[in-house]
Amino acid sequence: MITELFLTFLKLGAFTIGGGVAMIPILRDKMVKEKGWFTDEEMVDLFAICQGLPGVIAINMATYVGYKKRGLLGSLVSTIGVILPSFVVILLIARGLATVKGNPIAMGMLGGLRAAAVGLILIAVWQIAKTVMKDAYSIIGAVVAFGLIAGLHINVAYVVIAYLIIGIIYDRIKNGKDKKPGAESGGGGEEL
Amino acid sequence: MIYLQLYFAFFKIGLLGFGGGMAVVKLISDSIQQFMAITPSEFANIVGIAQVTPGPIAVNTATYIGYESAGVLGSFVATLGVATPAFILVALVCRFVTNHQDNRTMNAALYGIRPATAGMVAAALITIGTPAIFNEEKLGANFASLHGVLPQNFDLVALLICVATIVLIKKFKANTFAVLIAMGIIGAILGA
Hints:
The complex is a heterodimer.
Chain A: H1 2-15, H2 24-34, H3 40-52, H4 57-94, H5 104-132, H6 136-151, H7 156-175
Chain B: H1 2-16, H2 22-31, H3 40-52, H4 57-99, H5 104-133, H6 145-149, H7 156-171, H8 176-190
Helix pairs in contact in B: 1-2, 1-4, 2-4, 3-4, 7-8
């Protein structure tokens, strides 16, 4: 499994342009459909946590998946895997061994990859919306979050913290104060 | 000790940079002045390369800046620095979430942030999609005859690659990495 984690994240690091978000559909297919390591809901939680925490989303996702499957060693191996390709490519460019700017073939290849990444992100939007948008709160919440981030340029971290608090308050209002943990009927996410 | 300085500067960037990608890049631009005299346009160039090459933008930028200011070891140290905080934080959070799976407040919080994920990914679609589809350096530069036909600032080829990626993956269940490689090759043939 260690080798598999490393190779999966190595490929993700090598082929996805534009950062961690483009990796989402690939990661989801691999982890949910192919390996059965995570459910769709667990995957969405993982993306939410990784985008809400500081740092590079791709590294966060590699660390999270690796840790969940194989503890610290797993997260270390996954993180190295996701970083290694860009490290090597940038080093070659910085040393002048590979020219990108002004080279039509290199720029064309990267442009093709970048355009494909946009397609991947669209797939990610669809996948996550399908998993997440199941009741009034989640539909309105998703649209409002989009407006806050894309329209008003509010930092993702603040949006995540706000939603986290809203989730807890919503649960308290809906299910009352005195329910035992795990026994709630509607506020928790497990039954979704 | 330039290496220690680099490590801690990028450690700070990894710790404070929420939201990934361009948000982290802004932090980098503020804190690299101590290592190298760099003009805004030079920095824009570095970010431009980081954006079009595979891998997380912040890692690419760290590698580049590290190399420019202190060679290969510098780029290694800078990359390590940007990855360390994420690594520690995410591992801790992952452990916490896993250990409190049945906790009511935890589940309520996760329920709260799920819709935000959909909004965040949709917002990323705009940030990454806009420059990929609407830009001056269009794909297809190797075929001059394409140029007069296509409208200015709108990369029809990129849009077609994006659509083809979605159709191949969603409709024909093609392997994502195979699709990415194919799109890279198509881009290289067309040039940019």
